[in-house]
Amino acid sequence: MALSASQVYATVFQSLTGINASEEPWINDLYNVAKEYIDAGTFRSDDGLLFDIILSDEKAPQAYKDRFKAITDLRARKSSFVPTVAEYIAMEKKYKDVFSTVGLNELGTKEQISQFISNEVSADEMADRINKAFVAIDTADDLTKNVLSERFPGLTRQDIAKGLLLGKESTYEITKKIEGAKVATEARRAGLAAVASEQDIAAQGFNQQELRKGFQTVAQQQPGLQQASRMFGQEPVSQQEVVGDVFGTQSSGRLKSLRSQARAEFGGSSGITTGSLGRKRQA
């Protein structure tokens, strides 16, 4: 049985671009627009440039325009590089290969790749970003990895990398989890209980060394402050009070008063000297 003219054109399109015509329902409709150019002698049926011309034609199938929306976006922004339809298909395939290699097939959808291309991120640049994301994850110390695994059992290496690649909102959510885990890690390293205000501390942007120093300070000061509170007939000092005071997330006039009383009573040997990491960072 002979192929129809639209089927022949679909075969030509597939041959020139490498696209899988059977997966693109707009192929047959595209021929109706292409036929006008071919019949007018403006283009030959095997001229790949015609695919790009049709993309700007108001009569082009909407599904075709949606499929290559990134090209239209780049044209509108007068980007320094605007791929042809054939080049776009090649770029798309390269993206899929990159994501498949690292186990991030969820990012290899037509819609997601369209967004990356529209944002002018090449497949090579994406591969570099993925590599850097994995390096950051893989070089975290063992205690941080353990905390992440315990608290976010569904958060895999691929999940973290995916979040870092998907844009502001997703990156923000993943980053909050990682930074919160770093706070918990350093509290645990200092021998302290869980910290209720870890997100507040993480939001201040302390690096891991500063977190470590801060929680070591909490561990050093807490016993003396608790002893002082008992000695001076006050309610016991909680870990959260000391944490908030050291990291500057919750100022405590009570701790300041206890320190003053202790210094007056014992001089400089009380072991509960001041030292707010939060205030130091703001100075």
Topology:
Elements: H1 5-17, H2 27-39, H3 49-55, H4 62-67, H5 69-76, H6 85-101, H7 110-118, H8 123-138, H9 142-151, H10 157-165, H11 168-189, H12 198-202, H13 208-231, H14 239-247, H15 253-266, H16 277-282
- Number of helical regions: 16
Number of domains: 3
Q: Low-confidence segments, ≥5 residues, pLDDT <50?
A: 278-283
Protein structure class: mainly alpha
- Output the radius of gyration: 30 Å
Shape assignment: rod-shaped
Order of helices and strands: HHHHHHHHHHHHHHHH
What amount of the residues lies in strands?
A: under 5%
The main sheet comes to: none
Overall mean pLDDT score?
A: 85
The count of DSSP E runs of length 2 or more, i.e. the number of strands, is 0
- Note the gap between the termini: 83 Å
What does this structure look like?
By secondary structure, the protein is mainly α. The chain folds into 3 domains: 5-102, no CATH class; 125-189; 198-282, no CATH class. It has 16 helices and no strands. The longest helix has 24 residues, at 208-231. The chain is rod-shaped, with a radius of gyration of 30 Å. Mean pLDDT is 85; it is low at 278-283.
Features:
66% helix; mainly alpha; 283 residues; rod-shaped; single chain
